[in-house]
Design goal:
Chain A is an all-beta fold. Chain A has strands at about 5, 10-15, 20-25, 30-40, 45-50, 55-60, 60-65, 70-75, 85-95, 95-100, 105-109. In chain A, the strands form two sheets. In chain A, strands 2, 4, 5, 9, 10 and 11 form a six-stranded mixed β-sheet that branches. A five-stranded antiparallel β-sheet of chain A has the order 1-3-8-7-6, with no helix packed on it. The model of chain A has no long low-confidence stretch (mean pLDDT about 95). Chain B is an all-beta fold. Helices cover about 0% and strands about 55% of the residues of chain B. Chain B has no helices and eleven strands. Chain B has strands spanning about 5, 10-15, 20-25, 30-40, 45-50, 55-60, 65-75, 75-80, 90-100, 105, 110-115. In chain B, the strands form two sheets. In chain B, strands 2, 4, 5, 6, 9, 10 and 11 form a seven-stranded mixed β-sheet that branches. In chain B, strands 1-3-8-7 form a four-stranded antiparallel β-sheet, with no helix packed on it. Classes of the chains: A mainly beta, B mainly beta.
């Protein structure tokens, strides 16, 4: 079993839709959770960073962590074509990051 | 803040030559730097972790004599791919973490093509 599981998609939605991206993890000791956005042929860009359970909002993005079910989510409101990218969830294990497989998202105008 | 640069952004070389990739933290001191490799449509694979002034720690299956990592200062780490072969062609990405940060900030990546 992978430590972080993420549906690779691809996921395609119309512009303006609410997007929900999800990951599950296996180790209840994980405390730090991140979402990265990666455009084609570019390095990952940190979008959201959360510690333990709860919600965190930044503009159109909301990150949610449910430690009881080992489930992390990223919601994108009012999605834009510029949001089309691969989204990677990650958690920190000692000083390393453990990544999900990444979900390819396309927002159609 | 938290900007990481890489140079070059892409490189093409002949089989058997060595290639050096630089990773710099521009606005913070990176106590730890990481090197990743990414194949098309796949997630990032950690190759090695380096702490400033120490030898790098390589992940299982990564040849340390082939992928030489140097982290001589708090703002610079280098990855040298020695005697490169076509199977080394990939997207190489570095990341950096400072003493006061809990997460990693990534560089833009270097695309290596070995002919």
């Amino acid at each position: 079993q992978k430590e972080v599981e993420q549906d690779p998609g691809p996921l395609s939605v119309p512009e303006g839709a609410i997007v929900s991206l999800n990951c599950t993890y296996s180790n209840s000791a994980f405390q730090y959770f991140m979402w990265y956005r990666q455009y084609s042929r570019k390095g990952p860009e940190l979008l959201m960073y959360t510690y333990s359970s709860g919600n965190k909002e930044d503009g159109r993005f909301t990150a949610q962590v449910d430690k009881s079910s080992k489930y992390i989510s990223l919601f994108i409101r009012d999605s834009q074509p510029s949001d089309s990218a691969t989204y990677l969830c990650a958690t920190r294990k000692t000083q390393k990051l453990v990544f999900g497989q990444g979900t390819r998202l396309t927002i159609n105008p | 803040g938290a900007v990481v640069s890489q140079h070059p952004s892409w490189v093409i070389c002949k089989s058997g030559t060595s290639v050096k990739i630089e990773c710099r933290s521009l606005d913070f001191q990176a106590t730890t730097m990481f090197w990743y490799r990414q194949f098309p449509k796949q997630s990032l694979m950690l190759m090695a972790t380096s702490n400033e002034g120490s030898k790098a720690t390589y992940e299982q299956g990564v040849e340390k004599d082939k992928f030489l990592i140097n982290h001589a200062s708090l703002t610079l780490s280098t990855l040298t791919v020695t005697s490169a072969h076509p199977e080394d062609s990939s997207f190489y990405i570095c990341s950096a973490r400072g003493a006061s940060t809990d997460t990693q900030y990534f560089g833009p990546g270097t695309r290596l093509t070995v002919l």
